Recover the amino acids of this structure.
């Protein structure tokens, strides 16, 4: 097996190439879709608590806005690279298209380690980022949101900084805000909830009873924690057998109480040492024999090296880019049903879109309305992709690309771009 290329942007391009070939996309449209339309690289001087100034690197990529203003989260991560941000922006383009919301795809990132920064330093960095990218974002242009290691509080600081720049409130400039500042009910758990609705639909197609499903979760942040509790709340499954975070994992084949382990993580900052469990590594967790595996942390965790050992029936990719293209082929051959990332985790951007709509109307929906609308969008998207998977006899990721790329290409054609 040749070494896999783990550059996420190269992977995103490779996935697009495959879809373009199957769709018979004309070379011009294909070339236009292979690159971001715009990107901004910024350097961010920030006064640290010790009085020194540290300069951080930041990015904002607007991948494609043919279907509407670009939309995508901002990551704070020490290993952030422009290629990761490009890949994530490309996946946002396919994600908004696959759930059929009138937005394009973008993404932002700052190379930093928020775990080593004080709240004041994080606030100053967040505001400095908006001072720099403020000129290219806005409700009609590009709308950021939270992602890895960014929070509703960070969104609030960013929205406030934008307000001082513009001189008026534009809450829809950013989503994932606290409720007090125009956030949407149901945004907190939307990513995981959307993934759970997909798992429900996938289970139907596989004849699996989700209330009896065993499941394991890699990554225990926003996406992973809510997946743990919602498997129980929405689908009735009580069989969470393993969870992990960046410090390691825990395992109990008899089941781990989801709500209690979430509480433990919130109190201690880790899952390690959770009573009644055995330690397990992140690598071992992925290879457990479970019905549903939720990769919910970072990219490239299922590769050609371990794909052959994955025993889950369903891989529900809440993380972006957890599976490499070579691994995809192996999973497909082994009949592992993959719910691909930009379908599985599209619930977050869908409720972010609902947040933008509510901000524009200045009128807010109750939780049952958010859940019902989200369920409608996710179920329709899953079934569009599943139909393509069956009709074209391709794996679910390729099917999701075919659905999404067709929609973006159509918008570009109508605009006369290609
Ligand atoms: P988060 O910052 O809340 O949590 C990330 C979790 O991953 C943490 O528990 C961290 O400990 C863990 N982690 C980090 N490195 C790890 C490693 N090497 N091994 C195991 N665990 C590790 O982030 P999140 O919002 O939950 O995002 C997780 C994934 O879901 C990302 O890929 C993100 O792009 C994707 N996603 C999130 C949303 C959302 O709305 N939050 C939406 C779409 C996609």
């Amino acid at each position: 097996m040749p070494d896999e290329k783990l550059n996420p942007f190269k992977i995103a391009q490779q996935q697009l190439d495959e879809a373009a070939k199957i769709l018979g996309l004309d070379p011009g449209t294909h070339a236009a879709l292979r690159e971001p339309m715009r990107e901004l690289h910024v350097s961010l001087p920030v006064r640290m608590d010790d009085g020194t100034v540290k300069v951080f690197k930041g990015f904002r990529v607007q991948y494609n806005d043919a279907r509407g203003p670009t939309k995508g989260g901002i990551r704070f991560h020490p290993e952030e690279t422009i290629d990761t941000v490009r890949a994530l922006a490309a996946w946002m383009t396919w994600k908004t298209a696959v759930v059929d919301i009138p937005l394009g795809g973008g993404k932002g990132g700052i190379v930093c380690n928020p775990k080593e920064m004080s709240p004041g330093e994080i606030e100053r960095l967040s505001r400095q980022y908006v001072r720099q990218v403020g000129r290219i974002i806005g409700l009609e242009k590009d709308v950021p949101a939270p992602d890895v290691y960014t929070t509703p509080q960070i969104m609030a600081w960013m929205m406030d900084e934008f307000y001082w720049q513009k001189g008026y409130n534009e809450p829809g400039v950013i989503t994932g805000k606290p409720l007090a500042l125009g956030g949407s009910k149901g945004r907190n758990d939307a990513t995981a909830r959307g993934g759970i609705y997909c798992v429900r639909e996938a289970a139907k197609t596989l004849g699996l009873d989700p209330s009896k499903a065993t499941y394991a979760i890699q990554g225990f942040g926003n996406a992973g924690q809510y997946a743990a509790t919602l498997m129980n709340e929405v689908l009735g499954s009580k069989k969470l057998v393993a969870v992990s975070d960046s410090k390691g994992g825990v395992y109990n084949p008899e089941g781990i109480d989801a709500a209690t382990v979430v509480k433990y993580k919130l109190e201690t900052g880790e899952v390690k040492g959770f009573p009644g469990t055995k330690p397990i590594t992140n690598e071992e967790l992925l290879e457990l024999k479970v019905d549903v595996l939720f990769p919910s942390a970072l990219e490239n965790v299922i590769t050609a090296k371990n794909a052959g050992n994955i025993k889950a029936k369903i891989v529900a990719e809440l993380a972006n880019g957890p599976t490499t293209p070579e691994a995809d082929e192996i999973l497909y051959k082994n009949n592992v049903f993959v719910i691909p990332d930009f379908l599985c985790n599209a619930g977050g951007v869908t409720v972010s879109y609902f947040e933008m709509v509510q901000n524009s109307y200045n009128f807010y929906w109750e939780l049952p309305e958010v859940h019902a609308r989200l369920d409608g969008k996710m179920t329709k998207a899953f079934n569009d992709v599943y139909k393509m998977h069956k009709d074209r006899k391709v794996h679910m990721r390729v099917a999701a690309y075919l659905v999404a790329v067709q929609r973006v290409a159509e918008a570009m054609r109508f605009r006369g771009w290609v």
